[in-house]
Amino acid sequence: MNKKHDTMKKTNKQMLAAQNKPEAIPQMPWHERFYQFISSSSNFLIGKVTEDKFAFNELPDEIKYEIASFLTTKDFINLSKTTKSNSPFFTTNQHLKQGYEVRKFLHHVVRGNHEAVAKMLENNPSLMVIRGQVKDLSGREFSNISGFEYCLWALDKHMWTKMLDCVPKTEDGERIKTELRKQYQMIKEHGVTYTLHGVTKDYRPETTTTTEKHFDFKGTIISELQKFLDRNNNHQWITGVGGAQRLLPAHVVDEYCSDRPFELLPFYYFEQRHTSSKEYKNHLTNKKESWFGISSKMGESFAIVKGTGVVMSMARAWVPGVRDDLGAIRILYRVRKKDFLALEDDLKPCNSSENRYNY
Predict the structure, then answer these.
(1) What share of the chain is helix, strand, coil (3-state, %, to 5)?
(2) pTM of the full predicted structure?
(3) 50, part of any domain
(4) Mind listing the pLDDT tens digit for each residue in 116-151?
(5) Is residue 10 situated within a structural domain?
(6) Which of 175, 261, 269, 353 lies in the 20 to 30 Å Cα band around 143?
(7) Where a domain ends, among 144, 162, 196?
(8) What angle do CA 277, 251, 158 make, to 5 degrees?
(9) Which residues pair with 192 in a beta bridge?
(10) Domain membership flag for residue 38
(11) Are residues 102 and 181 in the same domain?
């Protein structure tokens, strides 16, 4: 009896052990593991080693090309810098080298980095007309846009002026200028398309795909500032104005964050470029924070006011300051629309051979 009991106990232990023992996972072929990783592991996409010790530089070149084409600009640039073994892949292949340069260029354009843009154009002025993909600071994703086209859409007069200054006075420069004219007409007639995966939970939270000829000043910041002045509603100030402020292109944020107050601005004020750190003063911490900071509560806990003083966050709006801000943004919008229309003449070809390259 005892022998039989011991046998049953042994059998039960074996059954329990079998139940608790993890199933053996068959080793997948590398190409199947690759597709699993590319869909689920962001670490893998920027060249880090995964749990399976599967690194980017171990992949066949044709797979590397596929990965590179799907990466965001930030990850594309980071991947090229992860290890020395990755660098030659991006610098020796002409197609990827151009793709890298275009993405890097667009990265600087949407951030308003004038000096970096000018430096890249000194080496390769054609970069301004080559299309690529980029995500701007507000999260808009453009899948096929040139740096020049982005400036036109954003109504960033100072950036497109910087680009035109870099067009060489040569036959190559004329060819670039011809393409600039084509792109200008394309934007003027058809606009550009981008996708935005929501702004905040209270302001345009849904994913949208939009086609427009330029940044919608009227439908965003101008409309929301006016709504607040009409209603004097604190919730609308935070969610409406704050949400719209998250959508502003970099050059508009520079105007907000520059040293000059928005009070009683003359029209000619916006003729000059005003630089800034793109920072505001947080009214709670009394410290400066980035306008486009990842952890920013703009549109959730506060909005930004400038008016007659320092640009700062406010949970409750200061009406006179908001009135100044609305007036300044309206002037900026009118001035930049005129600048856009005037640009068409600047892009016209030179007619006489005598002054052909003196534009």
Answers:
(1) 55, 10, 35
(2) 0.78
(3) no
(4) 999 999 999 999 999 999 999 999 999 999 999 999
(5) no
(6) 175
(7) 196
(8) 115
(9) 212
(10) no
(11) yes
